[in-house]
Structures
1.
Amino acid sequence: YKENTNSIKNSPSIKFLERIIKTSSIINVHDPIIKQINFPYKLHYYSSINSLILKSDIILILTPWNEFKVLNQSKNFNILRNKFVIDPFGIINNKNSLKISTYYKLGIKYV
């Protein structure tokens, strides 16, 4: 929700969730520190980024946690290959993003 902290106060991710939840039926989330939040809608929490990706069609990396850099490891590209990924912080490097079917980073679209 916010990098390197267990606080969700003024978190842009929470504001985003509040808006998107009204149009989506299932929201899967992963945060390395926050395991549950008091949120008026049901969220499905996953203990690892890989388990979340396996259960999701669209991946939004809304916080630049160092843990998410494991997505640059080649073993993770099989699970990302057919996903739609929005990565505004550029956690996934440019060379690897070309292996994902649809990938957006702030200001750049790779298809």
2.
Amino acid sequence: VGDGVVFDLPSGTRSTSHGSALCVFSPGGRHAFSPGWLMELATQAQTPLPGTEQCRHVVFSLDASRLAAMHKWATPELHVFKTQDGSRLLQASFRGGLIADMDLSPDGRF
């Protein structure tokens, strides 16, 4: 996977990358996730999200208050974080099955 770059399209400003082509934006565009990192786009403040460095399946809740990231190979591992401060709310491993997809409720509670 090559380097990923985030651009502010109106200004053409280039943001910092962490060596991944995956980038997922929150609803409303306040945050962006790149494996291992959460960025607040307005300030470009970056918060490390330990355990998500190899995640390739990521969703934000509709209100953008939560981020869920999951490995989809070997033993699937799920991480859920608060986007406000990057604190981990859940870390769980799932054995004996493949998780095909995931989503969060609009308010991020489930």
3.
Amino acid sequence: NLQGTYNIGPDESDCITTGSIVELFCSKWSGAKWNATEFNGPHEANFLKLDCSKAKSILNWKPLWNVEKAIEATVEWSKAYYEDQQDIELVTLKQINEYLEEIKAWKESS
């Protein structure tokens, strides 16, 4: 029975802080900068992480992309939308097809 909810997220080795994600994002988008500011809102946990063990055990799932590849794809999409005014539907479909090709290659090599 495959019913239920599943968390899909990064591998254990790719669990990094929000600041590290933003730094990585900025390193992939030339000229992007950020700075942390004080926030006096409600307390948030210092570290949040999805538990993907159910998807791994029941679906035999594993992430294909590491955090760097995922951020690169996010930057590619964002730049296409915000800087280049490309047809975002075409960019999205291109990225989905590339990912599906990676899944196919992974299945063939397993």
4.
Amino acid sequence: FPIRMEIQKLYNLYVTYYVQFPKEYKQTLGKDLGQVIYELRKHVNHALKVYQKQTALRDADSTLECLRDIVWCCFEKKCLSAGQLGLWAEQINVIGVMLGGWLKEVLSKKS
């Protein structure tokens, strides 16, 4: 599934940049970032397995918004550079488009 591959790319970004986080933020923002990516992956995997996908997809979308917030906070605290923020934003947007399209498809089948 393409969305799972995109989430894996996001996780790879996390692994790459986590080691560069300042020590004071590794155990807070760094862990929060990893946890939100895990939650996103969990919601997407759940949506792939269940018949009623709408709730899981909405949960994934909500988690993606939390991820945007945490990534922005990481940028504000200088854990991510402007270039790194751009990479994160691009990857998050790709996943958002995929989630939105999937949710739209589920809702149209429901009608």
